[in-house]
Design a protein that fits this description.
Pathway: Carbohydrate metabolism; tricarboxylic acid cycle; succinate from succinyl-CoA (ligase route): step 1/1. This is Succinate--CoA ligase [ADP-forming] subunit beta. Its cofactor is Mg(2+). By secondary structure, this protein is of the alpha+beta class. It folds into three domains: 91 residues, Dna Ligase, domain 1; 125 residues, ATP-grasp fold, B domain (D-amino Acid Aminotransferase, Chain A, domain 1); 150 residues, 3-Layer(aba) Sandwich (Rossmann fold), CATH 3.40.50.261. The chain contains 13 helices and 19 strands. Strands 8, 9, 10, 11, 12 and 13 form a six-stranded antiparallel sheet that branches. A four-stranded antiparallel sheet has the order 1-7-2-4, covered by helices on one side. A four-stranded parallel sheet has the order 15-17-18-19, sandwiched between helices. Strand 8 and strand 9 form a beta hairpin.
């Protein structure tokens, strides 16, 4: 589950990670109030207005039909009002959103942390995630903060420091010091970075996160280390242990069909193709999408109904797939292991009748326990549903449907 920058910073602050303070606002009036409060608290004259969407590259992103960037420095209260008016309610396009962009519903009014002092501010990069190849968590750090880490990895990989942590042992003090040394820090900044890394790792582990990315981490002009940004991904499978974090989910940031699928305990990802697919099991779903491609079509979605497919889940899957206007055919591919094929076939027939006339061809491939019985139920239903047993047979029927559409 993705969360917003301001929510990620709230988590970090609870664990003692120093952050760029800010106040979230959902209107220009609230933004102005927040700016006045921050200016009074920090003593700085300026604030930063940061759009809050689930995508990176906001600083380089641009509002559709405007020159307004997704992150902007406001040098007056009036500027805060104007920038916020240009952001809230409008579409921000970044390299991560794609050309369709994302609607900005709220902004973060943040303190200006690039103030003058005894040294120049320095931007760095730190992230923590799981390295599955080594079965370890890994801290990645770089002196090249504020840039896309992919660019750093491609052009200057020697500037990336990696430190692997055995999850059974945890982060050791010497490892936090290695990260700080790798970033070229010394004195108070070095000590503060050790504390920063230690607190960040604890936050990552305690929240069951799949990724914490701080870009940039800032060494301020008075040698303090703080998080200017926070991109946090939380493991969906562990949210039952963190109801407070689960409440941070912003449904407005997610695809409506994916939200509906989640409410029905379905795993759904919308794609750009013309053949909808409904499958039990992620691996079989991937193979099914390959079959659709090889047959000349393009998968319109990834939809895994899980091991307990029944009439209710099949009906929910049908309704979600059919809400995509690009879908011209549906392939249901079920392996009867945990669930019997005849139960699935009955569920397909009942779901078809409950929805009414489905305007696109449906191919149902059943294999495994009671596959023959399931095929007979489909064939005897009198509905516009084609049955198949072998994968090759299902692929051929998909191909014929694709050809008929051309």
């Amino acid at each position: 589950m993705n969360i917003h920058e301001y929510q990620g910073k709230e988590i970090l602050k609870k664990y003692g990670v120093r952050i760029q303070e800010g106040i979230v606002a959902e209107s220009p009036e609230k933004a102005v109030e927040a700016a006045k409060l921050l200016i009074a608290q920090s003593g700085q004259k300026w604030v930063v207005v940061k759009s809050q969407i689930h995508a990176g590259g906001r600083g380089k992103g641009q509002i559709v039909g405007s020159e307004q960037r997704g992150v902007a420095l406001a040098k007056s209260v009036d500027a805060v009002r104007d920038i916020t008016k240009n952001l809230i309610g409008n579409i921000l396009v970044t390299h991560q959103t794609g050309p369709e962009g994302k609607r900005v519903n709220k902004v973060l009014i943040a303190e200006d942390v690039y103030y003058p002092g005894v040294s120049e501010p320095k931007e760095m990069y730190i992230s923590i995630l799981l390295d599955r190849t080594k079965a370890c968590n890994v801290i990645m750090a770089s002196t090249e903060g504020g840039m896309d880490i992919e660019e750093v990895a491609e052009h200057t990989p020697e500037k990336i420091v990696k430190e692997w942590i055995d999850p059974a042992v945890g982060l050791q003090p010497f490892q936090a010091r290695k990260v700080a040394f790798g970033l070229g820090l010394e004195g108070e900044a070095f000590k503060d970075m050790v504390k920063f890394v230690t607190a960040l790792y604890k936050a990552y582990v305690d929240t069951d996160a799949s990724m914490f990315e701080i870009n940039p981490v800032l060494k301020t002009s008075d040698n303090k280390i703080l998080a200017v940004d926070a991109k946090v991904n939380l493991d969906d499978n562990a949210l039952y242990r963190h109801l407070d974090l689960k409440a941070m989910r912003d449904l407005a940031e997610e695809d409506p069909l994916e939200v509906e699928a989640s409410a029905n305990d379905l795993n759904y990802v919308k794609l750009d193709g013309n053949v909808g697919c409904m499958v039990n099991g992620a691996g079989l779903a991937m193979a099914t999408m390959d079959i659709i491609k090889l047959s000349g079509g393009e998968p319109a979605n990834f939809l895994d109904v899980g091991g307990g497919a029944n009439a209710k889940t099949v009906e929910a899957g049908f309704r979600i797939i059919l809400k995509d206007p690009n879908v011209k055919a549906i392939l249901i591919n079920i392996f009867g292991g945990i669930v019997r094929c005849d139960r699935v076939a009955t569920g397909v027939v009942e779901a078809y009748k409950a929805i009414g006339d489905i305007p696109v061809p449906i191919i149902v491939r059943l294999q495994g326990t009671n596959a023959a019985e399931g095929a007979k139920i489909i064939d005897d239903s009198g509905l516009k549903v084609q049955s198949a047993v072998e994968l090759k047979e299902a692929a051929e029927k998909v191909r014929q449907v694709i050809l008929s559409l051309k």
